[in-house]
Amino acid sequence: MGIRFILMVNKQGQTRLAQYYEYLTLEERRALEGEIVRKCLARNEQQCSFVEHRNYKIVYRRYASLFFLVGVDNDENELAILEFIHLLVETMDRHFGNVCELDIMFHLEKAHFMLEEMVMNGCIVETSKSNILSPIQLMDRA
Amino acid sequence: MEQLKTIGRELAMGSQGGFGQSKEFLDLVKSIGETRSKAEEDRIVLHEIETLKRRITDPDIPKRKMKEYIIRLVYIEMLGHDASFGYIHAVKMTHDDSLLLKRTGYLAVTLFLNEDHDLIILIVNTIQKDLRSDNYLVVCAALNAVCRLINEETIPAVLPQVVELLGHSKEAVRKKAIMALHRFYQKSSSVSHLVPNFRKKLCDNDPGVMGATLCPLFDLITIDANSYKDLVVSFVTILKQVAERRLPKSYDYHQMPAPFIQIRLLKILALLGGGDKQASEKMYTVVSDIFRKCDSSSNIGNAVLYECICCVSSIYPNPKLLETAAEVISKFLKSGSHNLKYMGIDALGRLIKISPDIAEQHQLAVIDCLEDPDDTLKRKTFELLYKMTKSSNVEVIVDRMIDYMISINDSHYKTYIASRCVELAEQFAPSNHWFIQTMNKVFEYAGDLVNVKVAHNLMRLIAEGFGEEDDAADSQLRSSAVESYLRIIGEPKLPSLFLQVICWVLGEYGTADGKYSASYITGKLCDVAEAYSDDETVKAYAVTAFMKVYASEIAAGRKVDMLHECQSLVEELSASHSTDLQQRAYELQAVISLDKHAVENILPSDASCEDIEVDKNLLLLDNYVQQSLENGAQPYIPESEHSGLSNISNFRSQDQHEASIHGLRFEAYELPKPPVPPRIHAASLEPSTELVPVSEPSYSRDTHQVETAASISDMGSSELKLRLDGVQKKWGRPVYSSSSPSTSNSTTPNTVNGVTQVDGAVNVNSKTRSTRDSRKPQVEISPEKQKLAASLFGGSSQIDKRATSANHKVTKAGIHAPEKAQAPKAAVVSNQVTVEKTNHQPSPDLLDLGEPTVASTTPSVDPFKQLEGLLDPTQISVTANHGAVGTTESPDIIGLYGNASASGQSSSSEISLTTNRDDVNFTVGLVDATVSTAHAGTTLPTQFPKGLNPRDSLEKDALVRHMGVTPSSQNPNLFRDLLG
Which stretches are tagged as biased composition: Basic and acidic residues (chain B) (predicted)? Predict the structure, then answer.
């Protein structure tokens, strides 16, 4: 399956976006987010951007106040996921122009739309920024 | 500052207008954004829930407003609160005509509902309609929803449309249709007839569709690679085109052409090329191209490089690629980035399966990672160590693992690493004593997390000892176990499982060597039973242990004085609620009142590991059966023959002998009513005493075991089974057969010589531990690290540098057979080379030395001629080459080579330190003998490298060892400096 979930969490540990590719109940999500956010936020800059958690791995990357956390299966290429996060940020950057936490908060659905274009069934399916953004731009114009 | 930014954003928002977000929504988001505590956030969200509950039911909400409400619902759920009251409105929104609203509706529904939710049925219709839409964006939105919401039952409702959409004119639709099909394939087997579509779509004109198709194909190939071998060429061609930048520029990422597609293709190739030489050969060129083209200064370049390494280590080995992979790995490991180190360690773990020597080149880097405070890196390194464990380094590795295990709290990982420790210890333990100590530690710190079987294996080991006729060693082992347990027993809060082991061992062997009195042991046991009074299993073990201790006292003719506290404990237990404990207590009281002779028969000392022969045919019943038959009973019909009959009829037949077929079957099952004892009786009793009821205290010989087995199986709560019949399979004697510390190594089944040599290495290694401190520390590397490196990697690293550089030439020359033949010698010689870098040893000399080795290592090969040819011209490079040759060999040769070289190295490095030179002459003599006897004793191979050398070179060798113990590949200059 590859990617199990994508989270955006600010440095206070507040969730800003959550997308799960396998169904978890509300309680399970809450518990999981609490656990992994605590784990990742406690790490420093020098340490690996990867954390093992139960039977999967979390790849995370920090942009200013916002953490991007991606839960992946064990056989996934961590470095590629790390760059996938960056691609996501670059894509949002292109759309919002210098994206920040508030952009995502005010346009939560758009951030989700971008993810919908990039990831399906837990697989990375689209990595071309123009392909990712064109449906969203079309909708804006409509 | 942040507030200013917020205001700025707000203004911008207002000017954008198109989003139509209300002031209310902006305020909500802002207030959520500004909260500083979870409680505050919860308050806002709860308030929001109340507001929405009131408003959302209003019949005339403008559509825009409704969309906003839906997003607010998403917020509520995202922040961990239930928004189910609004789900239906999200569902309704999917019906909307406006694309934005529709898509928002679908998004909300996919976020709220799982595929089995009741509301899904309301959406399927909408999805069907939308899949038929003229607007391709609507179709895309519906396909997104299909991927998330359609379950096995609803697949047929949309399947035909999805298949049709595979031919849609818009690539975005085709791509999503493929993924929808992928989803169906994951969910249900009913779509397997559609699998050919994936193959077809691989050739789609659009790179996006092709890239997406790789996902389902990857899944399919993971399951069954053989059916897709024909696609190897296609994948290779695609990968080649991608690497040559034939895809649109928009797929580039940081100057890399479509790296994510490259990575997925490499993953697929790795699967297809696994163990398939033909398929792999088609891949070599493209993989080496990518190796070359990748920019190792960017993260994404390294991601692709890493994937190349994974591919190379999984497909049929190619020496050149392996070499490139090794170079990349060393770059990773030397990098300052922890991420790259992590990838490097992981890659090393993959490559090590093919070229076992590669780890040695990076020993210091590995140790750095092991000692890094970063847990992630540390765990990855443990993973690597686990893969490279052999009998020569198991002690160090397991010690490290245990130390780490003690230091962490994460029970998930603790369990994991404990099981790894147990696994490694069981597989590679150099001695029983070490095994017991290790197990003790594992039990002490992770006892509640390990498998019960592990405890039984430990007890069994202590009981069986070495499995040889070496009683002294056995009893020594036992008394050391007893001693260690008496020491540990006082610790607070030991895990139950560990206490069971302790009680059992103390009961069996506590008084065996006469060092401890019965009252001392029973006193300790009493303390345990009292301290853990709510653990019935432990109490049961303790009481049985009392009984054994007293029985051995009585058998030895001593008078039993039961301690007062024991007395009261037993009395208390005889009134216990647990019938098992009661029975044990009464049995104990009965046993100690018996006389010496009876007790000897009931509980013979040290009989726990006597084999119980289970007579499965129950021959002892033959007489009885015969009698019954004569009396008119029906013969027994095996279950298989009347399997068609229901249990009920069986049951009824017990009452009336109406169904005569079952008559005897019933009897045959009834007789051995107490389930365990009759079987054991069958084996151990004289026929004359057959069928003594178990509960009577008049056991005859060997019932000691019966008692243990029966009583333990009585305890419904635990699955403990001390019956040793099944265990033997796992604890085959061979594992612990040899009494020397050199347990024969199970990982090296390839060559007889290889095995014995590794043994030698073990011996030496463990000996050197103590002497290693005397080495002079090197300038930059801390002595502890050196020590660790030496013990982890067999102590030799001086070959590293040259190994990689020289390797190339030799592989080109294509001479494999002689190389492997001289492997152990190469290790030796390379030492000399390092000493006398300028004056080479004369080659005839070398050749002389070489011959015996060759003969003994590979008696079947006759490589003298080749060897001569090889040695004369390229002596230095060949001898130094040793470290990396493994990469060039086919697997079995690698095995041979790996073993031989590993032991050769370690022995050559250690011997100079540990063995006294007096026996050099002796061993020279021995080596001659080796020529004829390939199976020379275990220690011999350890010595022959030394025996091969003239004495003075040996001394120089030792000197070098003292000076530059482990020059890493990172600082070859240092080494050169040392040599002057």
Answer: 770-786
